[in-house]
Design brief:
Blueprint: E1 2-5, H1 9-19, H2 25-43, E2 49-55, E3 60-66, E4 72-77, H3 84-88, E5 95-96, E6 98-103, E7 110-116, E8 125-129, E9 132-133, H4 137-148, E10 153-161, H5 163-172, E11 178-185, E12 188-189, E13 195-196, H6 202-207
Helix pairs in contact: 1-2
The structure holds 1-O-pyrophosphono-5-O-phosphono-alpha-D-ribofuranose.
1-O-pyrophosphono-5-O-phosphono-alpha-D-ribofuranose is lined by residues 76, 78-79, 101-103, 108, 110, 130-138, 165, 193, 201-203.
Length: 208
C-alpha cells in the first residue's frame, strides 16, 4: 500500500476551515467538494491513458485520452457522497458505483448495507471516496470487496486519516495495488473512534 499526503497550502487552508466547529453544513459541503477536486488532481496522477492523433486548427499532433475500460468511482455512503461531484468533475466519463457502509459506534465494526457496482472489475482502475479513515475497518472491507471483484488498481481518496487506520490498511492490504491519498494524517483516534484533532463526524456535518 502507498500513502500520499498532499502537501499544498490550498489543501491546508480548506482543511482548516473544515475542521473549525463554527463552519456550517452548507460551507462544509462546498469546501469538502473543493478539497476533493484538489486531492483528485493528485489521486489521478496515474490514471491510464492511451495515445491519440488529432488535428489542431493549425497542424497535427499526438495527445492522450483516458483508456478503456473507463475508471470506476465508488463513494462510500453516506459521507462519501459529498465527495462524488468533486471527483467526477475531473473524471466526467467515469462510471459510478455505490457502497453503503456503516460503522457500529460501540464496537467500531463496519458492515455493508448496500452494494451497487459491476460484478466484474477485472482490469479496472477504481477510486474509492470516503472522508474519514479512522480505524480503517470501512476502507479495508470496501477495498477487499473491490479486489475480490477483480479491480487491479485501487486509490482511496480520504480527507483525513488516523495513524491507526493507515496501519490497519498496511497490515490488511499488504502487497495489494492500493494507494491512499489524503490531506492529513492526524495525531490519533480517541476512545470513541474519532480522529483527533479531526473534524468531528463528517456524515453528520454534511447531512446531519
Ligand atoms: C464514518 C466515515 C467512514 C467511517 C470511518 O462513516 O464516513 O465511512 O465512519 O470509520 P472507520 O475507518 O473506523 O471504519 P459512518 O459509519 O459514520 O457512516 P456515515 O458516512 O453514514 O455517517
Amino acid at each position: 500500500m502507498r500513502l500520499h499526503v498532499v502537501d499544498h497550502p490550498l489543501v491546508a487552508h480548506k482543511l482548516t476551515t473544515l475542521r473549525d466547529q463554527r463552519t456550517d453544513s452548507a460551507t462544509f459541503r462546498r469546501l469538502a467538494d473543493e478539497l476533493v477536486t484538489l486531492l483528485a488532481y493528485e489521486a489521478t496522477r496515474d490514471v491510464r491513458t492511451e495515445q491519440v492523433d488529432i488535428h489542431t486548427p493549425v497542424s497535427q499532433t499526438t495527445g492522450v485520452k483516458l483508456s478503456h475500460p473507463r475508471p470506476l468511482v465508488v463513494p462510500i455512503l453516506r459521507a462519501g457522497l459529498g465527495m462524488l461531484d468533486g471527483m467526477v468533475r475531473l473524471l466526467p466519463t467515469a462510471e459510478v458505483g455505490f457502497l453503503g457502509m456503516v460503522r457500529n459506534e460501540e464496537t467500531l465494526q463496519a458492515s455493508t448495507y448496500a452494494t451497487r457496482m459491476p460484478d466484474d472489475l477485472s482490469g479496472r482502475q477504481v477510486y474509492v471516496l470516503d472522508p474519514m479513515l479512522a480505524t480503517g475497518g470501512t476502507l479495508v472491507a470496501s477495498i477487499k470487496e473491490l479486489i475480490k471483484r477483480g479491480a487491479d488498481d485501487v486509490t482511496a481518496v480520504v480527507l483525513l486519516a488516523a495513524p491507526e487506520g493507515v496501519e490497519l490498511m498496511e497490515r490488511e492490504l499488504a502487497g495489494t495495488p492500493v494507494t491512499v491519498v489524503t490531506a492529513s494524517v492526524d495525531e490519533r483516534l480517541n476512545e470513541q473512534g474519532y480522529i483527533v484533532p479531526g473534524l468531528g463526524d463528517a456524515g453528520d456535518r454534511m447531512y446531519g
